[in-house]
Amino acid sequence: MKRQIPLIIVLTLGIVFFIQFFIPSQISTNIYQTTLQWEIVISAFAIVLAIGSLINHHMLKIQRRKPHWWNSIVTLIAMLVMALLGILGRVEGMESLGQLYRTLFLYVQAPMDSAMFAILAFYMASAAYRAFRARSQEAALLLISGFIIMLGVVPFGSLLWSKIPDIAEWIMMVPNMAAKRGILFGVGLGMTATSLKIILGIERSWLGGGGK
Amino acid sequence: MIFSTNPWVWVAAILTLCIFSFLYKENPFYRFAEHLFVGISAGYGVAVYWNNAIVPNLFVPLFQQHNWWFIIPGLLGMMFFFRFNQKTGWLILIPMAVLLGTGSGMSLAPTIQTNILKQMQSALADATNLKLGGWGLIWGIVTLFGVITTLSYFFFSREQKGLLRVSANIGVWFIMIGFGASFGNTVMGRISLLIGRVQFLLTDWIHIIK
Amino acid sequence: MRQKIPGLLLVLFWASLSLALPARQEPVTAEPAAAVAPAPEVKAGDTPNDGGKAITVTWQASPDEARGLVDGYEVLRSETAEGEFSKVGYVPYGFTSFDDQEVPQNARDYFYQVKTVGRGAAAFTLSAVSNPAQAREQWFNTARVNALISCILFTLIVVIFITRAKRGQSLFIRRIAGLAAVEEAVGRATEMGRPILYVPGLSSITDVATIAALNILGQVAKKAAEYDTPLLVPNRDPVVFTVAQEIVKSAYAEVGRPDAYNHDSVFYLTDSQMGFASGVDGIMAREKPATNFFLGMFWAESLILAETGAATGAIQIAGTDAISQLPFFITACDYTLIGEELYAASAYLSKEPMLLGTMKGQDWSKALIVFLLLAGLATALIAPGTRDFILKILKVG
Amino acid sequence: MKILENLTKINRRYIFLMVAVAVIVPLIIPMNLPTIPGKYTIKLYDFIDKIPPQSQPVVIAADYSPSMMPELQPMLESIIRHCFAKKVRVIVLTLDPNGAALSEAALKKIAPEYDAVYGRDYAFLGFKPGSSIVMMSIGENIRQAFPADFYGKSLDSLPMMANVRNYADIPIVVSIAGSAITQSWIAYAGTRYHANVGSGCTAVSTADYYPFLQSGQLVGLLNGMKGASEYEYLNQKNGYSKAPRVAGKGMDAVSIVHLLLMAFIIIGNVGYLVARHNQSKKQGA
Predict the structure, then answer these.
(1) Could you list the pLDDT tens digit for every one of the 212 residues in chain A?
(2) Is there a domain that residue C211 lies in?
């Protein structure tokens, strides 16, 4: 029973929305659009569980005085302040809170966001140094094509041989495109098969414990 | 050196440096920034869910437009809360089933369209474009050949022997060349992001660069 | 090159224009220009494959278009053949059809006229009135027949192999390098007395990669429970977080160690992509997990996670169907499941006949795609006339 | 030989340090590395260069938000400089809600350098939501999409707009963006309304546009920081700009980091091959 009901729901909705794709009529499109809106609402409620977990996780650390426990206080306070400012800032008469919310986003969250992104530049270097080694035939191909593309970017490459940028473009257009498409076919079939398995109730991992 | 007088710029600059300090090693400054980042972005997420999902998609239809159908997603969403009780815990499978059922049903045919039919069409269009002639056509056919060999690498139910082995190996070559190229092609963009940060530090915070 | 010539011609045209006219002159009131020829054969009909309230109008290009005297066409609509026509749209020259998307009512007659607009909007000529047309809503999208057939075909193939598998036919699945390493990786963590980190991607539950990642999480959690190795599962999506917690919990129960399950091992971090990455980076640096799993959907954070993990000396097994992120996992991780290998993983690890059957069905579909591509290539090259037809069959509607 | 083997184990912190130095130093001290313009940059530059002065305006769609500034803002600035120097009129608009402030700042900064007059030499239309709908309505009449400019003045009150109705009166639309919006410009302005379209895009998305370049649907393309610096270089070479090269400095940093990366790759491989050689000798002995 506890397994049957969810499986029946999945089967019914799966078939309904598979068929919906082929029906262009007004009612069909309305149902589709309303459902999309409903899905957003449903998944939004799960954030309560998630935040519950976050609070629980850090409360435990504080209570047990785990190493660096005071950092958990930072997380909890930051979360509460930001959430409250964001929600109350929309209420009439409290626009100044909304202003503070935007300032915090602009000068606290956004810079850290960009800084994490920028760290990628360093990691590209260390990853290339470590992994671009001609350990095998395949690794050598990875190395050579990556090298040529990088050479295509710098003026030094064109000075070395004026055809380098063209070769770089060819690599992007021919072998790279071929690999991309080949992988896309496999991914597409795998995705379709998984959707099918979910609808038919074969794929049950989401029920917890492999659905046994 | 002239420093910015805007305290918020200082906050942003110091936090940026805290994050970068991780490159040396994990340290109290990074730890502080990390916990602040997780907290503030989680709080931001809550506000976004509230302002952009719950209010426009639930409260407005229910309380302003009096569209009582929207009680359904509200109730389904609230079923997540049954999790707090051992006995009723399984009920969260119902909203999950709704999300998964609609999601799978909706994505089935479009995936076939974009990942299979569309890709087949472009692969064939490139390989048979006689108007292109010469090298253009040859590269189109080479691409198609690469697509097929790459795809053959993903045959799982057969041992990689004989022709399949040869083909799968060629496929791996294409994959590796492609990955190397994507890697090399991403470097410039990532450095540009770093340049953006350095420019912020050296222009907005310390006025070194004009 | 071909595009460049008209561009150059236009440039020359302006050049001569600017030479002929003083640079800063008020626009000359257009002299009554010669009339342009009307658009012949204006026809109207219901727009196919839609929810109604739309009519498609088609016509032939005005004979003056070839002489470069036409700017475009205005489309006008009326409720009666002789009644007042009002403008509903405009298309530039080179186009001979227009979809009127704002038809007021279904199943009611409307008439159309096309107004040829001369160069520089200097002249207008109305066409004859079209036939009456009605907007209707359709119940089947004929442009999507190819997708429907493909879906049915694929489902059939998969179902055939699933039934075969159910009947007990043994099915083979080849070794997948990254997966063979799972056991070893869990064992290593146990030996070293360090935890296992498992990131089930950053996407939502409806993403197929997430489902595959959760599937593998179940298997990894079981092994971790058997060996009594701590497991860390940080999450970004609230719904995925809930499911992951259920899966890990029941994995512990399944191997008979429900008491060893730590409720706090599966936890939620934050919704923000980079916030999540910074959090996981911190965890890796502090807890030093012996083994990292990055399976599911990833974006730019892939390399941030994988490089930090590599620096802490962990064995790393990654897998994603995000093609743009695969290069980074390949370079920074010990094993990487490429695209479909991630989905194949659950079949491989569970050895469940139904999943293996699906896998076999997918393989046959791949064979079919290869066959169709080769057949299409051969046909279109031998008989070039068939090319357009072949491409039309595959057209996405 | 031991030293060579150690080349496989350079501490990552040294790599990070060198990357940091390679980025920071060129930004402070200009290196002026050679610039060799690529063919797609030259194509776009030449196209704009051939537009007769004080005739029909170029449209620049600056559809990006602040996070893409390092790569895209220099493109916008150098195209504007090129146009102002050649007295080619410019219309700037944006379809990104966060883009208006960026493009306005660029115009306000550059216009005085060339004595460009608002309404005569350039116009700023600001942001309009709706992307593809806006592109299509410009096809009919630009006044339909933008009845007034950013400052609320009606377009008819701007002298330069007198003879501008739609794409037929616009020699080229340059789409500067880090998203797929350029593809919409190609589809709507280009294919549908026969406009010439040029592109300036982030380095990561360049590969998506090669097919359009080959088919001629794009006049030319600026590829990230590299494309921007090449355009700056062409401007400077032809005497159209005396401004310091912003992207040029960035590109110096990009080039040096690339060379550094390539050097690291070579060093790593040398070390690796030596180590392997030594190992096989040991096994042989």
Answers:
(1) 678 999 999 999 999 999 999 999 999 999 999 999 999 999 999 999 999 999 999 999 999 998 889 999 999 999 999 999 999 998 888 889 999 999 999 999 999 999 999 999 999 999 999 999 998 999 999 999 999 999 998 888 888 898 999 999 999 999 999 999 999 999 999 999 999 999 999 888 888 744 44
(2) yes
CATH of D34-243, one of 1.25.40, 3.40.50, 3.20.20, 2.40.160: 3.40.50
ipTM of the complex: 0.93
3-state secondary structure of A40: helix
Q: Report the relative pairing of strands D90-94 and D58-63 from DSSP bridges.
A: parallel
Cα dihedral C360, C364, C365, C371 in deg (nearest 10): 160
Q: How far, in whole angstroms, is CA C30 from its chain's centroid?
A: 49
Instruction: Judge: B196–D70 Cβ closer than 8 Å, yes or no.
Output: yes
Element (H, E) at D125: strand D122-127
Chain A residues touching C355 at Cβ < 8 A: 197, 202-203
Q: Is A33 exposed, middle or buried (0-12, 13-18, 19+ CB in 10 A)?
A: exposed
Instruction: Name the helix (H) or strand (E) containing D60.
Output: strand D58-63
Cα angle for residues C171, C371, A188 (degrees, 5° grid): 65
Q: Is A41:B126 a contact under the CB 8 Å cutoff?
A: no
Are residues C102 and C241 located together in one domain of the fold? Answer: no
The verdict on C185 and C319 lying in the same domain is yes
Verify that C343 and C363 share a domain, yes or no: no
How many domains, chain C?
3
Inside any domain, residue C20: no
* Cβ atoms C133, C110 nearer than 8 A: yes
Q: Are residues C328 and C235 in the same domain?
A: yes
Q: Which residues contact C221 (CB under 8 A, 6 or more apart)?
A: C198, C231, C247, C248, C251, C252
d(CA D172, CA B49): 42
Beta bridge partners of C198: C293
The H or E element containing residue D201 is strand D197-201
User: Which residues, including other chains, have CB under 8 Å from residue D257's CB and lie 6 or more apart?
Assistant: A121, A125, B187, B191, D19, D22, D23
CATH number (domain holding residue C182):
3.40.50
Subunit contact C146:B117, Cβ cutoff 8 A: yes
Together in a domain, C90 and C189? no
**Chain A residues in contact with chain D using a Cβ-Cβ cutoff of 8 Å:** 114, 121-122, 124-126, 128-130, 132-135, 143, 146-147, 150-151, 153-156, 158-159, 165, 169, 172-173, 176
Nearest to D177 by CA among D190, D168, D186: D186
Give contacts of B7 with chain A, Cβ < 8 Å. Answer: none
Q: How far apart are CA C281 and CA C302, in angstroms?
A: 11
Closest residue to A13, CB basis, from B31, B98, B182: B98
With contact defined as beta carbons under 8 Å apart, do D175 and D167 qualify? no
Q: What is the CATH number of the domain that holds C68?
A: 2.60.40.10
Q: What residue segments make up the domains of chain D, in order of their start? A: 2-27+256-284, 34-243
Amino acid at D91: I
Residues C339 and C243 in one domain: yes
pTM as predicted: 0.91
- Which among B109, B173, B200 has the least Cβ separation from residue A18? B109
| Closest alpha carbon within chain C to D137 | C90
Please tell me whether residues C346 and C360 are part of one structural domain: no
> Taking CA atoms, what residue in A is nearest to C212?
A194
Range of the domain at C252: 171-351
Please answer whether residues B155 and B164 qualify as being in contact, where contact means their C-beta atoms are separated by less than 8 angstroms. yes
Mutating which of A13, A20, A25, A130 best tests the C interface, going by the most C Cβ atoms within 10 A? Answer: A25
Tell me if C14 and D140 make a contact (CB, 8 A cut-off): no
